[in-house]
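lol ok so funny story. i was supposed to be doing the assay writeup but got distracted and ended up predicting the structure for this chain instead. priorities right. anyway since i did it might as well share w the group, maybe its usefull for someone
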Amino acid sequence: MTMGKRNHSAGLEVQLLREGIVESRHQAEAVVCDERGRVLSVAGSAESTTFARSSLKPFQALAVTSSGVLERYGLSDRDLAIMCSSHNGTMEQVRQVFNILWHCDIDLAALQCPIPPEGNSRLQYNCSGKHAGMLAVCKLQHWPLDSYMQQNHPLQQMILHKIADLLKMPAAEFIGAHDDCGVPTYLMEISQMATLFAQMASGDNLSMERVVRAMLHHRP
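and the output, tada:
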């Protein structure tokens, strides 16, 4: 990452109003980077770190778009879109996730994301599409399905190395933890997250371009 004065500036204050009266104030930081990681605009510190969590979904989906899963199992961009989403567990969304498992001949029991508090199926969990996509890659590659959430699983290592390659960093330097849905997420500078999305929007990578097209045209 390019270091310099532009990497630090005053942060943002977000005010929550109730009938025009300030109820609470929240400090925020924001960064805009280009695809090379150069900081174009910043509020706060570009080096502040946080876990990427669900913002990683489009990049976790690169394991799907780059492995031939969509073509092998006849999956559509609508299926890809639900893999990239944090959905609301509606009936339509549940059916879309089930469609992925059905086409890949994967038993519903293989899905290991939690059951939401007010739900009765793992399909209703907001990350179920991502999990279904991960299982599809495992099915294609003949990798174990029962351990797909473990950090040392070939699938998770594949995802980590794709993210590391995009950021031109050694995979071993990433600090991982478990997201709420059980799969690994990684601690990153917010400038690194901004760089990932700048690369995704650049149109220079066919696998990422298909992810962008799916998200734009098929909102779950």
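The chain has two domains: 5-45, 54-169+205-217. The first helix runs from residue 57 to 60.
back to the writeup now i swear
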